[in-house]
Amino acid sequence: MSTLAAALAAGPVVLDGGLSNQLEAQGCDLSDALWSARLLADAPGEIAAAHAAYVRAGARVVITASYQATYEGFARAGIGRERAAELLASSVRLASDAVGPDGWVAASVGPYGAMLADGSEYRGRYGLTVRELARFHRPRVETLAAAGPAVLALETVPDADEAEALLGVCADVGVPVWLSYTVEGGRTRAGQPLEEAFAVAAGNDRVIAVGVNCCAPAEVGEAVAAAVAVTGKPAVAYPNSGEAWDPGARAWRGGAGRPLAGAREWVAAGARLVGGCCRVGPGEIAWLAREVGENPPDI
Predict the structure, then answer these.
(1) Is 48:39 a contact under the CB 8 Å cutoff?
(2) Which residue, among 120, 109, 20, has the nearest Cα to 67 in the 3D structure?
(3) CA atoms within a 13 Å half-sphere pointing along the CA-CB vector of 246
(4) Residues 6+ positions from 183 with CB-CB distance below 8 Å
(5) Residue 299 has pLDDT above 50, yes or no
(6) CA distance 291 to 296
(7) 214 carries a ligand binding annotation
(8) I need a labelling partner for 253 at 20 to 30 A (CA). Which of 85, 86, 101, 108 fits?
């Protein structure tokens, strides 16, 4: 099968949707600090079922359940380093089994703020240097890369400094990456202009796509245009449902509309990896696959 980068050159590729909302729809409790990563240890079959739901819907790229899976987070839950490494690797295996030979696995590398489990990924500016952030990310990135994903998804990144740290770490692991910021008001969550943030990836041959995720759908069009203009690379876009996350209440606020309704416009502007993030389920991905994908969904 061709590489994911080659597939992007041929046209848009459909990503999956939000893992957490699908797990909750299956009856899973995600209320602890490890969020969906806890199920890697406690209920891997539920993760496999969630991945399979998106593949049936037409997704060709499945993102692993490792967004909030870190050595530090596992340690706080009483899980030792060797077992943590096994769980990280298992996230890639579960996604690979679901997507099969005709799709690709994106190993999720969430931001430092995800490990804190307090909504910090929507703020950035943790008070850490680029070097300190790189030190935090390196062990997990190396473990995920060794498990053999098609790409590392550096996702929900709130801050260009963290993007710089992640790209520096990933330069050493031999796996392609995509870089995806979470944004608000046309800037990163840390307040940086998008042109400045996307420039971190310009000229980096390891990066196959640049864009946004875990943001309001209304933010996507402008961000895609900026990502393509600054980097000349394909864009990646997978917004939330349009609802807003309240970290204090650990609940979603507002109403969901049609979060992927602008997908054709995003593709016209240069998006080549398109899907959904939080609260975007298999139904929306099935619609997206019919709109822009090459494979019709099975549901």
Answers:
(1) no
(2) 109
(3) 7
(4) 189, 194, 212, 215, 219, 223
(5) no
(6) 9
(7) yes
(8) 108
Note the pLDDT tens digit of each residue in 177-219.
999 999 999 999 999 999 999 999 999 999 999 999 999 999 9
Mean pLDDT confidence for 270-292 = 95
- Residue 215, annotated as binding a ligand: no
Asked if 17 and 280 touch (Cβ cutoff 8 Å), the reply is: yes
Q: Is the pLDDT of residue 61 over 70?
A: yes
Q: What is the mean pLDDT of residues 125-130?
A: 92
d(CA 151, CA 282): 22
- Residue 244 is predicted with a pLDDT of 67
Report residue 122 as tokens. 């929507």
Give the pTM: 0.93
What is the C-alpha R_g of the chain? Answer: 17
Number of H helices, E strands in the chain: 13, 12
Say how far apart CA 16 and CA 89 lie, in whole Å: 20
| Residue 170 is labelled as binding a ligand | no
Residue closest to 16 by CA, chosen among 278, 258, 242, 268: 278
Cβ contact 255:242 at 8 Å? yes
Q: Give the length of the chain.
A: 299
**26 Cα distance to chain centroid:** 21
* All structural domains of the chain: 4-291 (3.20.20.330)
Q: Which residue in this structure is represented by tokens 């016209």?
A: 268
Angle at 107 between CA 101 and CA 113, to 5 degrees: 160
Instruction: Round the average pLDDT of the chain to a whole number and report it.
Output: 92
